[in-house]
Sequence to fold (228 residues):
Amino acid sequence: DTAVSQTPKYLVTQMGNDKSIKCEQNLGHDTMYWYKQDSKKFLKIMFSYNNKELIINETVPNRFSPKSPDKAHLNLHINSLELGDSAVYFCASSPTGTASGNTIYFGEGSWLTVV
Amino acid sequence: DQQVKQNSPSLSVQEGRISILNCDYTNSMFDYFLWYKKYPAEGPTFLISISSIKDKNEDGRFTVFLNKSAKHLSLHIVPSQPGDSAVYFCAASAQGGSEKLVFGKGTKLTVNP
Fold:
């Protein structure tokens, strides 16, 4: 019973395409995140939503658009994919955000390769 | 600008011995620190955490030490087991406004049988 699940796990697509990665958590958490692990292995936050409301939007190109239909789901849409978007994208969730000292729980990651 | 630094990209130890993974941070506003463990092709999983009001937290074979004056924390694993072989990420967050974790680059631990 996966707590944070994201699909697809692997995605290979051509430059210029639009793609989506879906994420769902069954932990009852209020806060969800998208993190990106790039080729240099840094794990960096992209977005954070609390109860469907955007609370963190790091310096991310506006080709990336998160959408949260409800607090259990946070999907990531990427338009006009570029080679540099190739990375591993991790969805995560936490009870009320890390500022209150809560742990965040990660999904297994989605390996995106843009060719 | 790396606020959380793990200067050793890799560490190799013998089974049964102690593994010590180090982490330094620069942001004095950080007050909550976590260690995550990551196996290949999986997401990071939470291992252990420590609040800045403590200097030590222990959970079974895992102990995290925090030295606030040096802005340094370490993870001790004893005894090390082959199943501990993974990448270990140090992460930090700050109260009062930051909803995000800042991660280090990770240290790959290999425990040899």
The longest strand of chain A covers residues 43-50. Chain A touches chain B through 28 residues (CB under 8 Å). DSSP finds no helices and eleven strands in chain A. Chain A has a mean pLDDT of 90.
